[in-house]
Amino acid sequence: MKEINIKNVAITFVVALIIWFIPAPEGVAQNAWHLFAIFAATILGIILKAAPMGTMCMMAIGFTALTQVVAPGDAGKSITKALSGFGDKVIWLIGISFFIARGFIKTGLGNRIAFLFIRVFGKSSLGLAYGLGLADVCLAPAIPSNTARGGGIIYPIMKSMAISFDSVPEKPETHRKLGSFLTLNSYYMNLIASSMFLTGTASNPMCQKFAANLGIDITWMSWAAAGFVPGLVAFFVVPLVLYKLYPPELKKTGDAPKMAAQKLKEMGPISKNEWLMLLAFFILLFLWIFGGALSIDATTTAFIGLTLLLLTSVLTWEDVKSEKGAWDTIVWFAVLVMMASSLNELGFIGWFSNLIKIQIGGLSWQVAFPVIIVVYFFSHYIFASATAHVAAMYAALLGVGVSLGIPPMLLAMMLGFMGSIYGVLTHYGHGPAPVFFGSGYVDLKVWWLRGLEIGIVLLIIYMVVGGLWMKVLGYY
């Protein structure tokens, strides 16, 4: 029972029952209201950490099928519908991308890329910050777990660099020397990289799916095109702002390139498996960018990449079976998508969107757009999971905005970007946050204060630069 918090599970059940037995509001079908009760309780359970996300989602499937809310009176159809999320191609895109990411870690290619950038840019603390960030951006298109990317590749290298300059977690008086600055900057850069690509973090394809439910078509290339310019501006601006707000005591890190060169020397020449991993990476990028013209979608491309890695033995089937993060993501992702999609089909999302529209219906879309984005961004303080936040609010806010006349693609993409960058606000706001915060280099007060400041900077960059850039692209 170590994984289960009995008190929070009880709270979750009580909330579910309360919502269930409240009469359905006018305009909402009874089964849609009951499905909402299950969905809301699942999200609450995830926020409260009543049980692991996978456990909460398995419970949701069980109750959805048992109560037949998605197919009243037809038990067979109900369980089929409850499991329908597992057949969604978006689910498998993100799952297979996790397997491909394992190749970067297993072959050592991810570490090699990071050390190469440090060797080039690492002569100063600011250069070191850019070098680590650039490595994250280069890895982001093919490593959808920003936790694996940040925590498994960037963080260990960042920490070793800080310690090598005598900025040690166990010695608080040394934190400001280099470790604190690199910790915050690496985390912020991870989130910026996550926002730039559809496959940059696990919640992005969920946004794609919810947008598709409303008739908004987002492809890998359309996301990358929209995210590239604001992401690039944020990439250059954020380290500079942080350098002014929270400067490291050590400005010059002349030994970092030598240390990176030594690490590369220890790794030896690029191995055959690294070359094969690099080849698969470029094939993936090519097909994700140009596959639309060849009628090859993003999920098919992911299957092609995984097949190539399996056939060349870069990955083994044992590697695929043991990639717990991927299978875990496939499970909870499929269940949340199933419930959110069913709520849309049953008319609940439309009803809820109209309810909010009534409250802000007098606003022009130019005013409603920043209001919706700001509300979505700062509401992340109450969420311990980016995925739970996307599942709870993305579709509803998108529906409201579109009904108010906000250009659909503009709002869909901007809400998608927020799904990454709102993670700067707290030490629990995104997957990699506990890893970087757990280093001990940054105390809680500083983390939240710097996060608020950088969050405002990112909001301005994405809404102003990103909004104007999407206008240039013809997205609205």
TrEMBL record:
InterPro entries: CitT-rel (IPR030676), SLC13A/DASS (IPR001898). The keyword Transcription regulation does not apply. Pfam families: Na_sulph_symp (PF00939). It is a multi-pass membrane protein. It is found in: Membrane. The keyword Transmembrane applies. Keywords: Membrane, Transmembrane, Transmembrane helix. The chain crosses the membrane at residues 7-25, 31-48, 181-200, 220-243, 275-294, 300-317, 329-351, 363-383, 395-428, 448-470. Belongs to the SLC13A/DASS transporter (TC 2.A.47) family. DIT1 subfamily. This is Divalent anion:Na+ symporter, DASS family. It comes from Chryseobacterium jejuense.
